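If you are new to this repository, start here. Below is one unmodified record pulled from the training split, so you can see the exact layout before writing a loader.
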Amino acid sequence: MRHSRTGSFVAKTALALISASGLAFAGTASAAYPERAISWVVPFPPGGAMDVIARTLGETMSQELGQAIVVENKPGAGGNIGASQVAGAKPDGYTIMIVANGMAVNPSLYKKLNYDPVKDFEPISLLAAVPNILVTQSTRTDVNSVQDVLNQAKEQPGHFTYASAGVGTSIHLAGALFTYLGKLDMLHVPYRGSGPAVTDLLGGQVDYMFDSITSAKPHIDSGKLKALAITTAKRSSTLPDLPTVAESGLEGYELTPWFATFAPAGTPDDIIQTLNKAMLNAMESDKVKTTFATIGAEKIGSTPEELKTYLADETAKWEKIITETGISAN
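And here is the target side for that same chain:
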């Protein structure tokens, strides 16, 4: 395209003034956002609900944003390795992270963290909740309800076990909250991931597990596991006939394994708003709705401010529980 001399002069003068004022890219960088691929860090291994949510949303969001969203799995230390890397990333909107309850739990669970969940991140949006389910072997005829679990655990303190995918995971916390509110003595058996925990549960090496609906449902559908109750405050649309733990006899019980997204602290607000809008729009797409239903995820969605408040409330809640139960990852 050919420019006139006057247009060229004006353009050069404008650029010179911008550079001289030191505002060169401060006002224009986010206006053109995104100009390249965005890295979406998943601080856990591939295959879980968190990974599926990030990949599905990322693919749909990329269509609106016009740039690829590349999922990077950086597992380890209950999500702390990935979180630490994102906390130190450049706050330009090209690195974001999906997190779960650990964002609220880890400050109380770990004596030392390489990041501050509040000061080192900018909230983007709550995404979804993926309930956990209290399950046991389908061959057990002596247990058919939460009340059966409570009665037997009280009659035989220290006798029964519950498996988890590791200390601090929502599966562990669901069991810890259950024993805390029920004043029960049950042995927690942590595994390195949900897979081996479910294997031992199916084999009868452990008695119970508060497994994610994503991995538990196939075994429930096949008749290998018996579902007793769901951990959320409301019943799941995926398993509407399954009662909640609270309505089954343990008043006040509620654990909602949630997923949310954050960016490094200092990320410009207009970029945060762009990402928030793209995420909320993606959650309304048929593809995302279908995937969420498949893995048992219940859509949430929020503003950045709502996520900030939610994180503060969850952090305070789990600090109290972890302090009183003595749970520690160290």
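Two things worth knowing about this chain: Confidence is low (pLDDT under 50) at residues 1-29. The chain has two domains: 33-129+258-325, 132-248.
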